[in-house]
Amino acid sequence: VAFGKSLPVPLVTGNPEGVIDDPSQPALLADGSWNRKDYNTVIFFEDGKIKNTYRKQHLVPFTEHFPYEKQLPLLYNLLLANDYNWWEKGYESVVFETEEGIKFSTPICFEDVFGYLNAGFVANGADVIVNMTNDGWSKAVSAEMQHLGLAVFRSIENRRTTVRGTNSGMTCVIDVTGKIIDPMEPFKVGWHIYDVPVFTGESHGLTFYTRHIDWFAFLAIYLSFLLLGLGALYHLIHFIRERRQNRT
């Protein structure tokens, strides 16, 4: 935090955020648990201070949170005893804004593969999607390419530029047509300066997907079930008619 505040330029970075859960209680509770909540957080520094933060909303099951705490308490406590650290879920699609008026949002790591989440950022006013990803765990170039390939759709869906800054992944810019601009080689130490095209909501509006998200996908699913039902009904009627004809 001190480093971010000391810089003469804006900085966007990830950092664990621990907050007191109940201010009326001590940090260490009587049952041995900590009175705190931990978030996977992005911090935006500008002018020597923290301008705003974003807390990750879509946590990865079993690595960032345990979805079956109540159903499997023994396993949950066993994982906690082995130093698993679960994050709390964030609930706000934050849009940062620089002094120059550039509005951007920061899906964290695999959040850039979820269409609904990024559409929410853009609907809230984001003109650029800035993704910070730790892909060092994969140890495979194919995994880095797959993650990048999924992120491409977010720029196309929302007609917004995506900037990817990665650890061991594929750092690059993705334009609104899905073109990948000057990707860095994965698993290599380096840095790059990019010119980022900014497409604002005022100049380009919101796409159909941004406004309606997965409406078309749900419609296709409902129509599929409808066609399956009609097909089953047709075969049932045909079967009944054949049985009646055979009886006569």
Structure in a nutshell:
The chain is an alpha+beta fold and 248 residues long. 33% of the residues lie in helices and 21% in strands. The protein has 2 domains: 2-223, Nitrilase/N-carbamoyl-D-aminoacid amidohydrolase (4-Layer Sandwich), CATH 3.60.110; 224-248.
Notes on the structure:
With 248 residues, the chain is an alpha+beta fold. The protein folds into 2 domains: 222 residues, Carbon-nitrogen hydrolase (Nitrilase/N-carbamoyl-D-aminoacid amidohydrolase, 4-Layer Sandwich); 25 residues. The chain has 7 helices and 9 strands, in the order αβββαββαβαβββααα. Strands 4-5-6-7-8-9 form a 6-stranded mixed β-sheet, with helices on one face. The protein has a 3-stranded antiparallel β-sheet with strand order 1-2-3, with no helix packed on it. A hairpin with a 5-residue loop joins β4 and β5. α3 packs across α4.
Strand content: 15-25%
Largest sheet: 6 strands, mixed
Order of helices and strands: HEEEHEEHEHEEEHHH
Kindly state the mean pLDDT as a whole number? 91
CATH architecture tag of the largest domain: 4-Layer Sandwich
State the fourth-level CATH superfamily of the largest domain.
Carbon-nitrogen hydrolase
What's the CATH class label of the largest domain? Answer: Alpha Beta
- The total strand number stands at 9
Looking at CATH, which topology of the largest domain would you report? Nitrilase/N-carbamoyl-D-aminoacid amidohydrolase
Low-confidence stretches: none
Distance between the termini: 87 Å
Strand adjacency order, main sheet: 4-5-6-7-8-9
Return the structural class: alpha+beta
Helix content: 25-40%
User: Number of folding domains?
Assistant: 2
**Total helix count?**
7
User: Which of globular, elongated, flat, extended, rod-shaped describes the shape?
Assistant: globular
Cα-atom Rg, whole angstroms? 24 Å
